[in-house]
């Protein structure tokens, strides 16, 4: 019976270990491939924009909210998947476009005010960009030249119909002024005649476009809307894909080397429990990567640093537990009782140390910005995962291990036989 029970325990342990290995091997690569990489790992464009106050208007929080919205709309027009746009301080925006390789075009799109105005011959602004509903770049079928078709919203349609009707009526009475000039950021784009009233709420910008792409970029700016305040680009830099790939390769090497060294340390110092901890770390890694993937997080170098630090925290938890386990064994407790007591006594210490680290991470998150926040998030996430694996999974695996009689030898747990009270020797 004992032999059958031991064989059953060994079979169950082998099945669980193989399942963990298979899950780690099968899921790690797909999760890594599915992760979104940040600017420092993938390459791209980094821009720091600062809102400018004027004598008439100081930059407000509402201006920054509107500015962030407009910037996001503009970046979306570039076709960038998941850009990073976030505030820094009271009047700055950080814009990171991972995978984008045209910094000049990005700066041109982001920094242009794009204030569209329709003015009569006497300079009166009759319709502006805020009255615009849509703007599209097209090719004129007759001239084969690029142009932009504009569509106004309900209010803009009404105003445009009224002014065009007024101009047509004035011309019929002998007034030669029947132009509506189209200005972008106070620069004249075109100055067409008004031959008839336009009640449809549509207009066309023709001429002056060197290419279709130029017209498309301008249409994108108009769709995104004008900037609520003037903006100055105070920093811009491009991270080449080669540099990003090199950073990614070095990060992978550092992660693999770090995990291998940790696994060897745990195996050499704590033997069988160390091997159990190594299997727990596999599940820990899958949990962290899975949550990051589910949250659609962007992985950056500081984020990887946070993950590596949290791996160290996970190992610290196992070290505390195993040292408690050895103390309980030296005090004469059985393996099962020593495991339960070791986890129970180590929990408070583990919780306190992790709680203080999470508190520091929260401070970094709320007071920091950009990659500092990424570091704080991955560190906190890693600590939460390590708490789960160290307290729950490691304990479950150790109970499976002691279910195998061949694994009852105390030297497998880093304790010498002569350190155990004579009365307690040979007990499970």
Automatic annotation (TrEMBL):
Record domain Protein translocase subunit SecDF P1: where: 69-122
UniProt topology in membrane: Multi-pass membrane protein
Domain Protein export membrane protein SecD/SecF C-terminal: from-to ranges: 231-394
Any single biological process term in GO: protein targeting
GO MF term set: protein-transporting ATPase activity
GO cellular component: plasma membrane
Record field: transmembrane: 6-28, 254-272, 279-295, 346-368, 374-398
Keywords: Cell membrane, Membrane, Protein transport, Translocation, Transmembrane, Transmembrane helix, Transport
Domain SecDF P1 head subdomain positions: 123-229
InterPro entries listed in its UniProt record: Acrflvin-R, SecD, SecD/SecF_arch_bac, SecD_1st, SecD_SecF_C, SecD_SecF_C_bact, SecDF_P1_head
Pfam families: SecD_1st, SecD_SecF_C, SecDF_P1_head
Subcellular location, principal: membrane
Subcellular location, record wording: Cell membrane
Family that this chain belongs to: Belongs to the SecD/SecF family. SecD subfamily.
Subunit relationships: Forms a complex with SecF. Part of the essential Sec protein translocation apparatus which comprises SecA, SecYEG and auxiliary proteins SecDF. Other proteins may also be involved.
Function text: Part of the Sec protein translocase complex. Interacts with the SecYEG preprotein conducting channel. SecDF uses the proton motive force (PMF) to complete protein translocation after the ATP-dependent function of SecA.
Name recorded for this polypeptide: Protein translocase subunit SecD
Protein species of origin: Neomoorella glycerini
Record lineage: Bacteria, Bacillati, Bacillota, Clostridia, Neomoorellales
């Amino acid at each position: 019976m004992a032999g059958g029970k031991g064989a059953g325990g060994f079979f169950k342990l082998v099945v669980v270990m193989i399942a963990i290995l298979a899950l780690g091997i099968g899921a790690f690569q797909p999760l890594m491939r599915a992760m979104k990489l940040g600017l420092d790992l993938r390459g791209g464009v980094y821009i720091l924009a600062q809102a400018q106050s004027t004598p008439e208007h100081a930059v407000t929080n509402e201006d920054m909210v509107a500015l962030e919205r407009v910037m996001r709309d503009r970046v979306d027009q570039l076709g960038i998947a998941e850009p990073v746009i976030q505030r820094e301080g009271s009047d700055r925006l950080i814009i990171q476009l991972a995978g984008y390789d045209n910094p000049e075009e990005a700066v041109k799109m982001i920094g242009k005010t794009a204030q569209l105005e329709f003015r009569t011959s006497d300079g009166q602004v009759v319709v502006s960009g805020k009255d615009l509903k849509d703007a599209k770049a097209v090719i004129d079928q007759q001239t084969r030249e690029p142009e932009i078709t504009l569509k106004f919203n309900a209010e803009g349609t009404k105003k445009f119909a009224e002014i065009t009707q007024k101009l047509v009526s004035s011309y019929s009475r002998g007034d030669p002024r029947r132009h509506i000039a189209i200005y972008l950021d106070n620069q004249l784009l075109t100055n067409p005649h008004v031959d008839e009233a336009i009640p449809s709420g549509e207009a066309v910008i023709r001429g002056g476009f060197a290419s279709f792409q130029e017209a498309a970029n301008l249409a994108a700016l108009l769709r995104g809307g004008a900037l609520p305040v003037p903006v100055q680009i105070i920093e811009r830099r491009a991270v080449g894909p080669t540099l990003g790939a090199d950073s990614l390769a070095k990060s992978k090497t550092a992660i693999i080397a770090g995990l291998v060294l940790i696994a060897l340390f745990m195996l050499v110092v704590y033997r069988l429990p160390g091997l159990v901890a190594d299997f727990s770390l596999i599940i820990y890694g899958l949990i962290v990567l899975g949550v990051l993937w589910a949250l659609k997080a962007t992985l950056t170098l500081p984020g990887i640093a946070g993950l590596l630090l949290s791996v160290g925290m996970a190992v610290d938890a196992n070290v505390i537990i195993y040292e408690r386990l050895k103390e309980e064994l030296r005090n004469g407790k059985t393996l099962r009782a020593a495991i339960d007591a070791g986890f129970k006594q180590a929990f408070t210490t583990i919780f306190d140390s992790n709680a203080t680290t999470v508190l520091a991470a929260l401070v970094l998150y709320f007071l920091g910005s950009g990659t500092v926040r990424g570091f704080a998030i991955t560190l906190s996430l890693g600590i939460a995962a390590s708490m789960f694996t160290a307290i729950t999974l490691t304990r479950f695996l150790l109970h499976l291990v002691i279910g195998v009689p061949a694994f009852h030898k105390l030297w497998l747990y880093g304790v010498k036989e002569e350190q155990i009270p004579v009365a307690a020797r040979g007990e499970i």
